[in-house]
Amino acid sequence: MIRVLIAEDHGIVRAGLLQLLVNAADMEVVGLAARGVDAVELARATRPDVVLMDLAMPDLDGIEATGAIAEMAPQVRVLILTAFSDGPYVLAALDAGAAGYLLKDCDPDALYGAIRAIHRGEAPLAPQAASVVLAACRHDHAPIRPRRRPVAALRPKFSAR
Q1: CATH number reported for the structural domain that contains residue 50 in this entry
Q2: What is the pLDDT of residue 65?
Q3: Most CB within 10 Å of its CB: which of 25, 76, 80, 143?
Q4: Which strands form 2-7's sheet, in the order they lie side by side?
């Protein structure tokens, strides 16, 4: 059973996520938080496997709450679930310790799959978030290894006999 904490400031969205997760046979909701401070406290008290974390929350935003949870309980995996796909949000959330990043326009099956993936230790990223990460890597890092010769140059040469 995957123990999930939902951290979302909009009541209607929180209720919808709760209903979705209650219908998943392998998931159990262990807490609901409307503020970042509450998310951190509930994560401390309940030790969920996964926290679904919104970014825009009162008192303590999702990035700050993610950082606090990652520091306090590194085994708790935070999956960002937000409407923001802008590069600074994605990178700041991952830098704070988020293990995955999903957008709220995903379908329920994608949400279920991301929760299961993050629980297995994988790092699910919405395609928009993955593009941000790849662009940042290309911009900030030198190539890992020198360029290789074209594949055609590696083929053995056969002589006709």
Answers
A1: 3.40.50.2300
A2: 97
A3: 80
A4: 27-33, 2-7, 50-53, 77-82, 100-103
pLDDT at res. 141: 55
Domain assignment of residue 16, yes or no: yes
Q: Which residues, including other chains, have CB under 8 Å from residue 10's CB and lie 6 or more apart?
A: 54
Which residue type does 83 have? Answer: A
The full length of the chain comes to 161
Assess if residue 122 is contained within a domain. yes
Residue 78 · residue 115 · CB < 8 Å: no
Q: What is the DSSP string of 66-96?
A: HHHHHHH-TTSEEEEEES---HHHHHHHHHH
- Is residue 159 situated within a structural domain? no
Task: Supply the range of the domain harboring residue 68.
Answer: 2-154
Q: Where are any strands of DSSP class E within 10-83?
A: 27-33, 50-53, 77-82
| Residues 5/42, Cβ–Cβ less than 8 Å | yes
C-alpha distance from residue 108 to each of 84, 115, 124, 137, 146 (Å): 18, 11, 14, 30, 42
pTM: 0.85
Report yes or no on 88 lying in a domain.
yes
Number of domains in the chain: 1
Q: What is the pLDDT of residues 47-100, one digit of tens each?
A: 999 999 999 999 999 999 999 999 999 999 999 999 999 989 999 999 999 999
